[in-house]
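Structure, all two chains, one model.
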Amino acid sequence: MAKTQTAVGKVSRVGGKYLVTVGRKKYTLPVGTLISKELIAGAVGQEVDVAIANNTLVGIIGRRPPITCYIPVPELLEAVEEEVQTALRKVYTQAGILEG
Amino acid sequence: MSQATHSEFKQVVIEVTEACNHACLHCYNYWRPNRLSESVVPRMRPRGILTRMEILRLLRKVRRSAPISSVAISGGEPFLRPDLPEIVTDIASEGLAVVTITNGTLLTDSRLKRFPPGSYFEVTLFSTNRETHNYLAGRDCFKTVVANLDRLHSFGCHFVLAVVITRLNVRDVMQTIELGIALGARGVLLNRVNLGKEALPIARDLVPCADELRGALQEADRAAEKYGIGVAVSVPVPPCVLDPRDFPHLHFGWCPRGGKDAYYTIGCTGLLRPCNHSSLVLGDLRKQGFADIVKSAKTKAFWSPVPPECIACTHPLKESCAGGCRAAARECHGDVNKIDPFVAFTLAPALTEPSLSLVRLGSRLPSAKASPSGAI
């Protein structure tokens, strides 16, 4: 199996085609078979992680997977404000549960 | 809730192994031996376990008839498979979102660096109290899990915290969420214990009563509002036990009952089941088409029943609930038409303390030591 590399690309739509631009290179997305049109239409204008093997784009790596065990809640996946995390980290470090 | 056509399903669960290095008291996996007498279960690989390539092949087969966009990897403990990072990479390379459900004990550097960047994990943490976590997990692992969660971000990985609520940790919810945030959790799944056949004899000790559960959800609601973290009560709580509308900051989920949000589960030998909680084999995905299995009479018969006790229910959320978890009813009572056993135990009079039946061999009940809380 070819070694797969990952990179960040930006999704765009030109005419009826969906493209991902990685650096200076544009890849046409094979919409329909492996990548659903509905999924990719929602990602236009956004940066996505892509998988590239043998100079061919082989897939888009979802960045916000829904949680499927048991009920998907995509809106759940948001990082908490850094100050809040830092403050709680201090509390639980002082309590001896986390290491400083 | 109406059953979806196969062309609407968005996700599947794949169990990559039945082996597990935990012996959780509440474990519902039907293949588990008696958990009170075995602390660790180094189960042998069952015959015919799917290879990495077969997993990919089956997923492609499912995608030919269903537009799934995400996959949850589960087990057993998925990290017991040495090729797990490559399995996840394969699936992600197909353009699918992947989340790996794990107990967090085996998240070593050598494994994590082989995962695709931005990988998501769902990691179980029962409590901030080491004894409680270890007691529920059946082994001394609290420190390892916390240390591993603390290193996830350095590999560009993310996690959501999964907390299973039982009578033993029902008072630890706020602290556990706080610890999760401190470690970088991007969300919390608050799963009330879901009973399986093996856990039924100790259900009175495991299932919190309605008041205890209400207290835990109030704490979670407060945490969600205070810290701005998403908290989902993922395993449905029937509204006759608690009304979800009393907890405005929590997301409540319902069993999709074969609807478009259903998460059909592919076992580690390719057998397809209605969900990860159920032992009911609907078909063999290696030999049958996904669409043929999910639209079969056997599948329909599993999702359709509403327990007789629930038919006259007048609660506004009756349609969403539809009698609670069908899988738990079937696993515990052998009958999918029975009421979710969680309802009966939750509404039963509260016991004052967990009984002696819970004492594991060579172990003891955890003490009710307080953890830091509400400090900011």
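Residues 70 and 176 of chain B are 27 Å apart (CA to CA).
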